[in-house]
Automatic annotation (TrEMBL):
Keywords: Cytoplasm, Methyltransferase, S-adenosyl-L-methionine, Transferase, tRNA processing
Biological function: Catalyzes the formation of 2'O-methylated cytidine (Cm32) or 2'O-methylated uridine (Um32) at position 32 in tRNA.
Protein family according to the UniProt entry: Belongs to the class IV-like SAM-binding methyltransferase superfamily. RNA methyltransferase TrmH family.
GO cellular component terms listed in the entry, alphabetical order: cytosol
Domain tRNA/rRNA methyltransferase SpoU type, residue spans: 23-174
Protein name per its UniProtKB record: tRNA (cytidine/uridine-2'-O-)-methyltransferase TrmJ
Organism: Paraburkholderia aspalathi
GO molecular function: RNA binding; tRNA (cytidine(32)-2'-O)-methyltransferase activity; tRNA (cytidine(32)/uridine(32)-2'-O)-methyltransferase activity
Location(s), subcellular: Cytoplasm
Upper taxonomic lineage: Bacteria, Pseudomonadati, Pseudomonadota, Betaproteobacteria, Burkholderiales
GO annotation, biological process: tRNA nucleoside ribose methylation
Reactions catalysed: cytidine(32) in tRNA + S-adenosyl-L-methionine = 2'-O-methylcytidine(32) in tRNA + S-adenosyl-L-homocysteine + H(+); uridine(32) in tRNA + S-adenosyl-L-methionine = 2'-O-methyluridine(32) in tRNA + S-adenosyl-L-homocysteine + H(+)
C-alpha cells in the first residue's frame, strides 16, 4: 500500500490513520468471488480491514474462487473478520455509512459517495468508522440501514443501475481515499457534520459507539411505550423518524447518557410498584 504524502497539517497526518481505522463490512455476501474482489478493491485503495457478516460460504477466506478474485490481495482476504451480526461488525464503531441501491423515504441522511466520503474524512478524526454493504440480491434490511449513521447511494445509470458488490466497494473506497489524502479544507458536507457535532464551535466530546446508541434506542423505546406515546401494536414510523433525527446530530457519549437518563426517569414515574426501571 502506498502512503499519503508528508504534510505539516496535523489533520492530514491524523487521517493517515483513517486507512486503518476504517472497516468495510459485507453483510451476508453470497458469492465467494465477490468477497475476493472486494478484498482486491480495498487493497488497491490502501485499505485492509474487511468484515464479513454471516457469509453464505462459512470459510470463504479459503475458498478458491475468492482467492482467485482477490488477485494478490490474499492478505486482506485471509485477515477478514467473520462475525454473526451487523451489531458485532459495528462493535467499537462510532459512525457508519450504509450503501443502498435505492433511495429510501426513511432512515439516515442520504449522500452521494463523494459527500459521504467528505463526512467520513471528518469522522475518521474521532475514531473507528465503517462502510456497510448489503447482500448481492436483497441489499440491506431496513433494520441494518437504521443501525448506521448515514446512507450513501451511487447515482448510477437509471436504465441499468445494477452494480456488482465489489464494484460498489471500489467506488466508495476510491472516494474515501481521495478524501483522506486531500490536504484541502474538508468538504461542505463534512463541515456541516462537524459544525452540528461540535455544537457550533464548542469542542467535540467523545463520540458514542454503535452499541451504546442501540442501547439508548431500546431504552427510549421502552420509555415511550410506558408513556403510551408509542403503541407497540401500531408503531408506525416513530422510531425510524427518531433514529433519523439522532443520526443527524452526531451523538456524543454524554448526550446518549442524557437521553438514557430521561428514559430511566420516565420508566421510574410510570412503572408499577416493584417494577424495574433499568
Amino acid at each position: 500500500m502506498d502512503h499519503p504524502h508528508h504534510s505539516s497539517d496535523p489533520a492530514v497526518a491524523d487521517l493517515r490513520g483513517g486507512f486503518t481505522s476504517t472497516r468495510f463490512v459485507l453483510v451476508e455476501p453470497s458469492h465467494p468471488g465477490n468477497v475476493g474482489a472486494a478484498a482486491r478493491a480495498l487493497k488497491t485503495m490502501g485499505f485492509s480491514r474487511l468484515v464479513l457478516v454471516s457469509p453464505r460460504v462459512p470459510h470463504v477466506q479459503s475458498d478458491p474462487e475468492a482467492i482467485a478474485m482477490a488477485s494478490g490481495a490474499d492478505d486482506v482476504l485471509a485477515s477478514a473478520h467473520v462475525v454473526p451480526t451487523l451489531a458485532d461488525a459495528l462493535n467499537g464503531v462510532h459512525w457508519s455509512i450504509a450503501l443502498t441501491a435505492r433511495l429510501r423515504e426513511y432512515g439516515p441522511p442520504q449522500w452521494t459517495p463523494r459527500a459521504a466520503a467528505g463526512a467520513a474524512r471528518e469522522q475518521a478524526l474521532h475514531g473507528e468508522i465503517a462502510l456497510v454493504f448489503g447482500n448481492e440480491r436483497t441489499g440491506l434490511s431496513n433494520e441494518d440501514v437504521e443501525r448506521c449513521s448515514a446512507l450513501a447511494h451511487i447515482p448510477a445509470n437509471p436504465a441499468y443501475s445494477s452494480l456488482n458488490l465489489a464494484q460498489a466497494v471500489q467506488v466508495l473506497a476510491y472516494e474515501l481515499r481521495t478524501a483522506y489524502l486531500s490536504s484541502d479544507e474538508v468538504t461542505a458536507a463534512a463541515s456541516a457534520v462537524a459544525q452540528t457535532a461540535a455544537g457550533q464551535g464548542e469542542p467535540v466530546g467523545a463520540r458514542a459507539a454503535s452499541d451504546e446508541i442501540e442501547s439508548m434506542y431500546a431504552h427510549l423505546e421502552s420509555a415511550l411505550v410506558a408513556l403510551e406515546f408509542l403503541d407497540p401494536a401500531n408503531p408506525k414510523k416513530l422510531m425510524s423518524r427518531l433514529r433519523r433525527l439522532f443520526a443527524r446530530s452526531g451523538l456524543e457519549r454524554e448526550e446518549v447518557n442524557i437521553v438514557r437518563g430521561i428514559a430511566k426517569h420516565i420508566l421510574l414515574k410510570t412503572r408499577p410498584p416493584g417494577g424495574d426501571a433499568s
